[in-house]
TrEMBL record:
This is Putative CD11-like protein. FG-GAP repeats lie at residues 328-380, 433-495, 496-551, 556-616. SUPFAM superfamilies: Integrin alpha N-terminal domain, Integrin domains, vWA-like. Residues 1120-1134, 1144-1157 have a biased composition (Polar residues). It comes from Ctenopharyngodon idella. Keywords: Calcium, Cell adhesion, Disulfide bond, Glycoprotein, Integrin, Membrane, Metal-binding, Receptor, Repeat, Signal, Transmembrane, Transmembrane helix. GO terms for biological process: cell adhesion mediated by integrin; cell-cell adhesion; cell-matrix adhesion; integrin-mediated signaling pathway. It is a single-pass type I membrane protein. The chain crosses the membrane at residues 1070-1092. Belongs to the integrin alpha chain family.
Amino acid sequence: MWVSLTSPASLSEAFNIDTEHPLRFNGTAEDFFGYSVYQSEFENRKQIIVGAPLKRNSTGEIYSCTVDLLSCRPLHWPGSESVRFFGMSTAVSSAAVGRLTSCSPYLPHDCDGNSYLNGICYQFNSSLQAVSNFTSAYQECTKREVNLVFLFDGSSSMKAHEFEMNKHFIKDVMKKLSNSSIKFAAVQFSKEIRTVFDFNDYQNGSAEEKLMKEKHMKFLTNTHKAIDYVLTNLLNDASSGADLNAQKALVIITDGEPSDNDDKNVLSRCDEQNILRYIIGVGHVSLHTLTQLASEPKKNNTFYIENYSGLEGLLDNLQKKIYNIEGSKDTHSKDRPKELSQSGFSVLYHKDSVIVGSVGSNDWSGSLYEVTGSGSGFKETEIKDPSVSKDSYMGYSAVLGMRGGVSLLFSGAPRAEHMGLVTLFTKSESTWKVMWNITGEQIGSYFGASLSVLDLDSDGESDFLLVGAPLFYQSQPRAEGRLYVYAVSEENFQKTLNVSESNTGRFAASLASLKDLNGDGLSDVAVGAPLENEGEGVVYIYLGDRTHGINPDHAQRIPARSVLPGLQQFGVSLSGQMDMSDDNLTDVVIGAQGRIVLLKARPVMSVSVQLSFSPNEISLIDFECPGDKVFNAFNLTSCLTVNERTRSSGSLKKNLNVSLNLNVDVMRGINRGFFVQSDSSSRTLQKFILLDSGISCFSFPIFMKHCTADTVSPLKIQINFSQTKMFSESSMAILDIHSRTEEYVEVPFQRNCNSNNSCVADLKMNFSFTNDTLLVMNLAPLTVLVSLANPGDDSFNTSIVLHYPEGLSLSKFDTVKPSRTRSSCGDRDSGATNRTTCSINLPVYRSGTTTQFLATFHVKQDYDWADRMEMMITANSDNNGNISDTVVRRSIPVQFAVDLAISLVAEDSVKNLNFSLEDRGPKPLNITYKVENLSFKGLPVSLKLILPCETTYGILTPQTFSMQENSSVPCKFTKPQDGHCGKFECGQFDLQKSSEVHFTLTAHAALQNVKQYESKHSFHEFREDFVFDISAELHFNRSRYNQTSTGLKDDPHKSQTTVRAEFVVPPSKMLIVGTGAGGGFILLIIILILLVKCGFFKRKRPEDFPSEDENVTAVEDSPLMNTNAKENGGVSENDSTEKENKVTKTNPSSESPNTEE
């Protein structure tokens, strides 16, 4: 049936242990009802045996609880208040006739003032009636012989009546202990030492008479000498009646400090022989000195009285100490094998015998005892590991197994060497022998406090050993308690797993092997953490695993509060080997403080799912672009098969409430198929169903759009399911956690191929660069022409992958021809920066198609480019059969775009020079050049300066040529052999990006070859120009760097500089003056001759002329009388003619004066 819900609830950490319907059996927390629990069957009635060790003022009691009556009845209590903690351990026999043994590890009894602590176990028949008891490892009261010597002071410091009091004190002690096994002797010491009576005298009855007749010696106090005397002549001398194997004791009574030294080390000898020494100091005596004479504990064995009358009050105290010597075996330092055995701390059955743990045996080393028989006729055999140290608590836990027909006895000693220990005993004939030991990993972890064996496949062979270390501490991640799993074999143990769960909770304080819970045929395990959740407790369920024993992850976590609020120490005890409710499913009994809980198992159902579709492929006939119409592409069918893994019986409902989830195109970002015809985004579908046993099938139509780009890749459909908590009242079944809850199916598209329905494409790919070089400048273009041909069958999911350096970025990938071929780039590269995948004509690149593409790249100038750039382009498809023509590699030279220029710095340079005969030089010449790098990249450059040869009138002598910013750049001057011209060559230097440097030429220019002008006189000025052509050239690696236009000049790498020189010879002053003077004199003579011929000198005088008249114009002075000429010392011919012409023009009509003819 179908059921739709809006907000389903999911199962939390539950598996098949039902925590919703527990059966509770109540006791009281004060009695600790539930401290131990055991499932059993007696007289065909299934029962739970429960221990309450604190019942009846900690005497203890055990109970029998029945599931059918939901009640508990008390079975037995010891009936003696001296017995404590009965029910702390219990064992149930697995024999056909049920037997039960329950123990108390606390049975105290006194022996002549000594307190012993043993244990007692009670045995019950199949009717659960107590029939007998036994006390294994029980220490009987025994007496052992003691040889005691009284060494009393007879020095002169003692008065006569005090000496008598001394003797009466000794007599009273002997009288009170006359019925003991103690033999006495007495020695008086002073300066000398004398035996008063020996052990023979005491035994024949003459000791008292000799004592009372003893005379007072009255000398010094030689105590050490006296002790040596006692050792030699009494305690270690059999002739004195001493028993050399008896416990030795010495009572020293003195009122003074020793007057001698311990030269013979008598005190050390006493310690070596374990001689107990009691010191009684009387009067004014140094207790510190006397205390050194006593045995350990020295203060407890030293007594002080003010005078000898105090001996009477000391009698009882000393008597008790002496008496205790008799009742203890090597009390001072020997082991106590059974005195504090506390047998019954653990108990188990082995065939017809009972094995009990005795943690206190052998000074708490611990051991086990195997008990056979019953009542007063029982026999016991100690089982111990001699290598276990004291205070180990062997027997704290014990468990039995079987391997290859050999019985295996495992016993835990959680305090062994502070690390913990587990010992394996095997029984050969009638003797248990130590086979192997396992040591814990951490101090104080209590490794071995809990044990369990796991018969994984229930074949009677023990496969794994489980060891709990409830105090193990782990800091990261924080955890308290650890479970260790060991594989058991005939040869050794092999650790397979360790598990920690609880933060603080004593995880693994209790362990129990469980009968198969989930129907996989393997035994499972319950682990208790009784203090987790602030003392409430948690139980963990682990399923069996053939390799590791158990699965490392728990299948179910059961906190106390999920079962019953208010529980404390839930999980302190566990049992789970029986079906208590007659449904053929294992039930688990869990103990808590004051209650026990029975949790039933649920049926476990296995579910498998199968997906199918119809038709068996998606037809291509319905796909056509463009268009948005939708059609039913195929129908999907899911069939779920439900089977029970467990073998439950009865009327349990086994329906499963399942949430079913379907997803179309599960691996794609954009789905092609969908469930709802009107909603193309409906790629998922969720349904809630109630499954019955058997097969249930459901169908779903799948829709697609007519215009779907990818009609090659199959549609991948996923189905997964999980159990929900719906209908919990009607269904008890649980989904098997091992069920495969997820399945996939791929629905293919129809394919049309030429041969045998097997499409094989034949892709052929090639490419070429349209550029000769790769020019590195920001966003510079690089174009690649790519050709792809497919002469074979249709190619599916075709792609071209361009592999290139990260210094390139693909900006366009255009189809050149034919234009109908589609491409899509960059959506399949996951952010890669050195490749681009271009899908070609998805989904099918048709047979016989040839396409050219133009790929345009942008060049990144900040990339670290090599000398050549290599590019690889590959062609791929799902069905390409040609792999030889689909990978092409090509390379292209790399050039960097640079912007270099060299130019003259005019303001810092001399370009014009003037020379004359008087100033022939040499004159300084400075030329400065600027070298600029306007590009983004620095590069190495060099500079050459070519100087001119000598000119006709000038010579250039170079001095230096150097860089202003870095004088270390070498510039070398070389001359040709003729010596007329030369050049500077500056070595290579690094010209950084966006920088400029300056080079300066210093030289001298001088005038030459002008001797012909030194004696030459001329009326005119002589000028002669000549030039020095200087060429500066910038050089760099033109195969690696490419000059870009600067806009400065045609050739930015060359600067041609012309220095103009002018030679000037002025006109000769002497020539001009001489010629002027001579010419003027000749002209004067000519003028005079002319004047004479003209009768100038015959003219009238002024007074002979008439008076002034307005019509008569006076004739000016003759311009021939040129005062300037006189001043200049003469005029040139040209000048005279010029002035005559001026005169003529001034007076064109004037008449010459009258003259004689």
